[in-house]
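Support request, priority: normal
Reporter: lab tech (M.K.)
Component: structure prediction queue

Hi team, I submitted a job for UV radiation resistance-associated gene protein from Urochloa decumbens yesterday, and the status page still shows it as pending. I've pasted the exact input below so you can check whether something in the sequence is tripping the parser. The sequence length should be 380 residues. Please let me know if I need to resubmit or if it's stuck on your end.
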Amino acid sequence: MEDPGPSSAAPEPPQTPPPPPVEEGDGWVLLPPSEVEGVDAPKVIHWEDLQQELARLWSLSVALQASRERKAHLTARLESAIQARRAFLQQDNELAEMRQSLQQHTDHLGDLKMHTKKSSEDVEDRRAQLCVSIRTLSVASKTLGTARTNLEEANKLLSGENGHGRLKNIEQKLRTRQQYMVTQVAWIYPVRPLDEKSPDHKPGYTPSIMKTCNAESILPDGSRKRPLAILGLQLSKPTAKKTGYFGDKTDFQKPSTVLGYAAHAVSLIASYLNVPLRYPLRFGGSRSHVLDHSPSVEPSSMTSVVSSVPLSTSMRTMEFPLFFDGQETTRSAYAIFLLNKDIEQLLNYIGAESLGPRHVLANLKQLTMIIQSQQYISTD
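Reply from support: The job had stalled in the queue. We restarted it manually and it finished. Here are the results:
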């Protein structure tokens, strides 16, 4: 029996059972007919070519499955690469921030290093100064220790039998002796108001040893305006009418005698107090003199006793008469001024002040009264 030609109708192939439904996840997807390519003109495959076509379809299916797996693998790798790229970019940004922070930290460390270097130099300078101060303090400490030792020894000497207490006792005895001697001088040359005859008659006698505005402040109450006298003689300058060659000599002898008494009293008190007078006295009774060792001034050129303009000066010692002889009285007035300066020196020595440059007897009385007071003996 011959095979039918190609124009003859071929027998219908046996119907193959429909493939089992593909479950989700097996890689097969059911598509609607409208999405299948060539559904309107299906390809006719002969029976003898079916096996070959099935094999080809199977190989294509296997290749498609492999392509899909490769695609999925590549997709996974691509996603992994994208994730790695994102992580890399994030790490790069973090690294840039860390690099910037590190640069700032490095700059800060540089500033700290410069500050530390400067501080180290300052510390070295201060250390050198401190070493000098320590050496100075060490020397001062040794000196202070030596001084403290000397002070302790001095305190021991002062607190001993021959110490400060003994010196105070000796000073008090010396002042008591000086007071006694000056009291004797005050009894020999008493200075009191002119109308007061006896030292026992002193009603309301309240003397004051403080300096006031006038010379009569040391007089007893009720006799402030009375003139002072020494041994009943008042110190008064002869008037211009009585000066001359034919004047009464008694008018010159009385003030000269008063000045002699005052000069003798001042010289005795100065010797008892052991005070060298600035203007020494050459005692000669009523013919005493005052010596001036400073550059002298010619008295003939003086217009006043206190304030004068010298015309010629010399370094020799000048003597000024402490008396009036009826001749030039300017030298005698200057001698009285120097005598008052000596009394003022003694007043300053015992801590008092003068009553004025024209109050010889008042200053002398104040000097004797202060020395005779109880405050003079007290050494506290």
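The chain has a mean pLDDT of 75. The CA atoms of residues 116 and 122 lie 10 Å apart. Let us know if anything else looks off. Ticket resolved.
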